[in-house]
Design goal:
Layout lengths: L5 H8 L3 H8 L7 H14 L17 E6 L5 H16 L3 E6 L4 H13 L4 E4 L5 H6 L7 E4 L9 E5 L1 H14 L5 E4 L6 H16 L9 E2 L5 H12 L7 E4 L2 H13 L6 E5 L13 E4 L2 H17 L7 E4 L2 E3 L13
Parallel strand pairs: 1-2, 1-3, 3-4, 4-5, 5-11, 6-7, 6-8, 8-9, 9-10
Antiparallel strand pairs: 10-12
Helix pairs in contact: 1-2, 1-3, 4-11, 7-8, 9-10
Length: 335
């Protein structure tokens, strides 16, 4: 039988994790009856706080690290906001680092956070397989977020990338599109590979050709996506629809459409972003639910801080297609 955790104490006492943490830390301002109930739950469960989950001295809860691709990415912006909120609720501090999607910087940022003494990490890994795994520390808990990357010995929280992309492209096909472009980041990322596979499978399932000339996987950000989208959408025989694999890529596509003065190209973006509803037409997106993903990642890390030897768990969250207008445009007539 596994050792009871702070989550079990909170459930037994009927209070939040934050309240239990305040009692454990001996903070002022907690009502005596609340302290009594929490202490009773601790005694009943025979709960003993894990020293690895707490800093020595002062009884303060630990600092955790969060490593993401970019601070400008709307998806990771939401992840950061949720992790910070959850950490504040538990009295923790958070150190946030970005990798710029560079392997060397990814490694140096993780090493820097470990030197700073973080008790655990939430990481959006870079690379694949052993290369991605090699930079992750073993002495502290690590939760992998957004992409699995072949990392089998760490908790993972991700979404159904293949299924979400497949649904999006099927949606475009159902609205009459046959020439659908794919613009995404490098296929080094498992998320991009899965979304590209979902795109391709949707076309093949509909009896359509997968045209390599309509696929771009070098769109690192909006600035990189913009000229590629511009070149792809300018010709007379341009695709009538685009599937963008990330919000930043989608923003690059929208800039190209604005430059070309085009409002007749259907667009679905994997991932929501600010002002998407205010575009003309409003942008249809595959909602990858960054709030739910970040909540789950924080829960995984908090539990692993309490029980470092718990079984490795992978949580896969569903996506949902949010129809707003751009993904429902029909194919245009001859230009």
């Amino acid at each position: 039988m596994s050792e009871p955790t702070i989550y079990d104490v909170a459930r037994e006492a009927g209070f939040s994790i934050k309240t239990v943490s305040r009692v454990l830390n001996g903070e002022d301002g907690v009502r005596p009856e609340t302290v009594a109930r929490v202490r009773a739950a601790i005694d009943h469960l025979d709960y003993h706080p894990n020293p690895a989950a707490r800093r020595l001295g002062g009884g303060k809860l630990p600092t955790i690290g969060l490593v993401v691709d970019s601070l400008n990415d709307p998806f990771f912006g939401e992840v950061i906001a949720v992790v910070e909120r959850r950490a504040v609720e538990m009295g923790m501090d958070v150190l946030v680092a970005s990798t710029g999607m560079d392997a060397a910087r990814n490694q140096s940022q993780i090493e820097r956070l470990v030197r700073r003494g973080v008790a655990g990490l939430i990481v959006a890994p870079f690379g694949e397989g052993q290369a991605a795994r090699a930079v992750l520390p073993d002495k502290i808990p690590v939760v992998v977020i957004d992409r699995q990357c072949g990392i089998l010995d760490k908790d993972v929280v991700r979404v159904t990338d293949h299924e979400g992309a497949h649904e999006a492209v099927c949606h475009l096909i159902a609205h009459g599109h046959r020439r659908i472009a794919f613009l995404g980041e490098t296929a080094e990322f498992s998320t991009v590979r899965d979304r590209l596979a979902g795109y391709s499978d949707a076309l093949l399932d509909a009896g359509l050709e997968v045209d390599g000339q309509l696929i771009e996987t070098t769109c690192w950000d909006a600035d990189a996506a913009y000229p590629l989208a511009l070149a792809m959408l300018a010709p007379a025989d341009a695709p009538t629809a685009v599937f963008a694999s990330t919000p930043l890529v989608g923003l690059g596509v929208l800039r190209a459409l604005k430059r070309l003065d085009r409002q007749d190209v259907a667009l679905v973006v994997f991932g929501d972003f600010p002002l998407a509803e205010l575009m003309t037409p409003p942008t249809t997106v595959v909602d990858q639910q960054p709030t739910a993903l970040a909540e789950a990642a924080f829960d995984h890390l908090a539990r692993r801080l309490e029980d470092p030897v718990a079984a490795v768990v992978e949580t896969v969250l569903p996506t949902r297609l949010v129809q707003r207008g751009s993904g429902e445009l029909p194919p245009r007539g001859p230009r």
